[in-house]
Amino acid sequence: MEASDFFKLLKRYRIVMMVIPLITIMVTYYFVRNLPDSYVSQTQIATGIVDQSQKLPEDQTAQESQIFMEFANVIATIKLNTIVNQVSYQLILHDLTSDLPFRKPSKLFRDLNANARAHAIEVYTKMYNTHGALMLWDKDQNGLNSLINSMRYDAGSIQAKLGIYRWENSDFIHVDFESENPQLSAFVLNTLAKEFISYHTDTEKGNQLKSIHALDSLLQKKKLSIDKKTDSLKRYKIKNHILNIKDQASSLYAQISDFEGRKQQAEKDIAANDGAIKSIDSKFKTSGKRGGYFENVSSKINTKIAADKDILKSYTDAWIKSNYNNYYKLKIDSVQNILTNEINQSADQSGDSPLSTKSSLRAQKLNLEVTYDLAKFSLNTLEKEIGRLKGELDQLVPHEAVIQSMESSIDIDSKEYLDLLAKYNQASVLSNFSVKLRQVDLAMPGGPQSSKKMILTIAAGVISEVFCLLVLFVLFYLDSTIKHPRTLASVSGLPVLGYLNVITGSILDLRKLWDTDNKNKMQQFKDQLRSIRFEIDQELNDHKLLAITSLGEGEGKTLLAVSLAYSYSIINKKVLLIDGNFSNPSISTTIKPQLFIEEYFKESPDNNQAITNDVHVIGNRGNDITLLEIDGEKAIEQKFIELKALYDIIIVEVQDMSKMNKAKEWLLFADKTIVVFEANQSMNETKNAAIKYFKTLGPKFGGWIFNRVPLDDK
After folding, report:
1. Please, where are the H alpha helices in 541-613?
2. Which CATH class, in words, describes the domain spanning 485-709?
């Protein structure tokens, strides 16, 4: 498949390619000659999508993808049938109520009587006011819809002539409409803009109100939830006597820490005082008698001291339990002063005694014992208070978990409430904000557009020409026929000896090929035949028997055989031409030879004598017979040996390969076999089988002769 073949195909059908576009142009012009002029009106609608002057201060700048999506939504909304139907109702109502309709009334429109016209006006008005659509399953409304369609006021007809797009990167939507009436174009655009802005405004306001109502409802529910949870927290704290759990825990930790410090100090005092008391006791032991005199003198005072110690213990215990209340501290200090005075009094009473030294030690010991007992008493009380405080702290832990959970839930609800409140406030502000959409340019009746008659006519011609080219290319692409010798060689895998152009006239009147009058006309054919003759000579070398066959009937092997025979005779070769085609003996029928194969290949002396008398053609009688059925193989081979001795070349036209069994018998005796293949034929299963057989012949296969090539092919 080559480009040159396609151009040859175009050349062959050049008349068709000129006639079809010409007819198409004429037909198109006939139909568009009365095409009315068209008028285009246009308007622009400001959307406010990218106009920052129409946005609230807190509004963020939208991304490009969001802007594109918003413009796409606006354009899609303009094209909605709901809006376009409103324009349709306005158009039909105008024509029904006006003496100057926009369009010439249709037959259905003209057939309306007064009652039908009044009913139509009533229904269309109702549909327009309610933004309704005609129900096609209702017979009456279906008829009214047909009336709109007949005037080409339906949504589909209007949308087909609408052009809607964003004007470059601006904030404006450009809308244009084309019709045969400038007033109609302007009316459609102005009505469409008004209906779109009204629809969009109502829809946006309705959505905003729904949002406000929904947010208000959520706010009320969330506030009620917060109040319930706050009340539950309050009641829980009251029930468990909790004011502020963090402060209470901090206070308990501080008290425990303070008590722990005082406990450590008390333990130190106990140890120190205990050591001092033991040191004094050890002195008493070394001095002998243990102060009997002193006890006798101060027994009363000692009793008072013991009683005051008990009082001091009780005050100390109360002082610690009261978290070191200053009231009890004053009491303790007062009792300690009393004890100090009593101890000093005891020491004074024993001042003149011989045991005055021991008395002094005894007084010192009493002071130490008071301090020791005071520390010991406070230690026990401190341990109890520490235990009590830790118990209170342990009781706060589960309360803290519950309170934290409740407070966390309240905090979450409070945040959600604030978010809802912000959205509610924003929605309220937006609902009071002015509508962004507005028609900035009123559509006006425009002038007539350039006539499309010429454009349509030229387009029709171009399209028809392109269609012809497309059809021819498809035919060329699907064409699997072999058009070139090299293609045949490539497909078959066998060599091609040459090719012959197609010729007209009698195929056997070959003397005229070499006449001077036909020299220029048949020069190409003669040159090709001479080339083939030369190639055959090279293939035959010293051999003489050449078999000519073909893949199918009527491919030109008879012409080639006769032409080669005559060509060899021109160069003074003694040529024998044998008609071996029993199924179609064309050579025998045309030349009418004196000798036939059926007689010659029989053992007869008369036949042998006959062949020597310059008989150059052996025909056949066209019987249903094969070569080997006439005589045996060895006898036929002997006959061919005799013929080779008499002639320079023997050319045999053999049966075509569609009857392969008859052809094979001839090819057994051939020195070389050449096959005629007609141009513009395609391969099939039978032909492929024959090609496989030719390949088995090996050197005995001479090659293809590509026949009937068109005269303009090279």
Report:
1. 557-570, 586-591, 597-600, 605-611
2. alpha beta
